[in-house]
Amino acid sequence: MKTQFPEHFLWGGATAANQIEGSHISDNKGLSTSDIQPFGSFGALHPRQEGDFNIKDVAIDFYHRFKEDIALFAEMGFTCLRISIAWSRIFPHGDDAQPNEAGLAFYDQVFAEMKKHHITPLVTLSHYELPLHLAEHYQGWSDRRLIGFFEKYAETVFQRYGHFVKHWLTFNEINITLHHPFTGSGLPDDCSEQTRYQAIHHQLVASAKAVKLCHEIIPDGQIGNMLLGAMMYPLTCHPDDMMKTLQQNREWLMFGDVQARGYYPSYMTRKLKELGVTLEITEEDKEALKATIDFISFSYYMTGCASADPSQQDKANGNMLQMVANPHLDASEWGWQIDPTGLRYLLNFLYDRYQMPLFIVENGLGAVDTVTASGEIEDDYRIQYLNDHLVQVGEAIEDGVDLMGYTSWGPIDLVSASTAQMSKRYGFIYVDRDDEGNGSLKRTRKKSFYWYKEVIASRGASLKKPGRF
């Protein structure tokens, strides 16, 4: 079925401050947890030592080149750009009495440039980083005081930018603390389950408080959550595999359930009991959680399988998770299995569950790109990947899913969150920089740049049936 996407549909791309900005200590910015992960999120237990190279210190230098980059996004026809604000640019230590004006002024300029090009900002408050001081001196989100620090930060940026920024997200892939506590919450990766889930609870309360503030300060604003969409299929139709799949999907759906419904789902009572976890939940917490989100946003890169059989050892890596491999799917160069139909499935699943507007805020293919002798990048593999996924998005819209928009991950090459590589490229725009930090940082349009421009201009009418490239 050929679908033309709705006129109001938001088209664009998604980025994160710590993966594009660079200038990691410029203009009074404080260090963040990301700044001491020179090997990416997988290297959390091998923190940066003095003198260590971290490619994110410069990243792609968006801090100085944002006008050029935003102009390129506008040339593609973007109507939306997802960025994150670096918390430690605004409050360098996280617990500062006053915000850093230089940091606030930087995002003033970024949003002004987006306004100039008629691009709607979608802004994430915390994207895989928090001020390092909060991790070192408060043990990250395990400390209840971080709720107040985050509330103050959210209030500051809502008041500063609310006249233009109307679309917000609280925590990027909030469920990542289940798998990488340091990346998600500033905790040691070997922390106890008690510490992990108490930190998660504090984040959920902080998120709800930010939602309430957004509705008060920006009455015409909308604020959503952001999930790592880790949809699992049963490896077989054995009842034990079905039950295992239900349980594994609930691990990440719990975050959506709390943020969309305003309370913990009943299945968490047994889960926490079996883990030996007793959460400290105050009456004020319960009241705070009632401030629910306006829409559900999520990342989607792959699906996985679940099996109750411990002998199933064939694993598939993906977006900082390990899952049982699906024997029916191909995989990317980094082992991420490719499942366009899974995106349609997930969209329908989430809409059936929540009956709330959805927003795909990450989806893309990490691949090695080769520059030809004439300076061109023929990335047909990326075009095929995105085309096939967007065809399934169109099918979901025809299914009746209320979808706000689509922002592909990494519209410009950026530093990989998981591995701190430049060679794992996602962008429509090539950035001349390698994994050792060499290169001119010159921007070059890839073949996919012109393809995505046509997709946006035609509102999806130019998409081809899968396998037709």
From TrEMBL:
Superkingdom classification of source: Bacteria
Protein name in the entry: 6-phospho-beta-glucosidase BglB
Gene3D superfamilies named among the record's database cross-references: Glycosidases
Catalytic residue positions: E362
Gene Ontology biological process terms in this record: carbohydrate catabolic process
Secretion signal span: none
SUPFAM superfamilies: (Trans)glycosidases
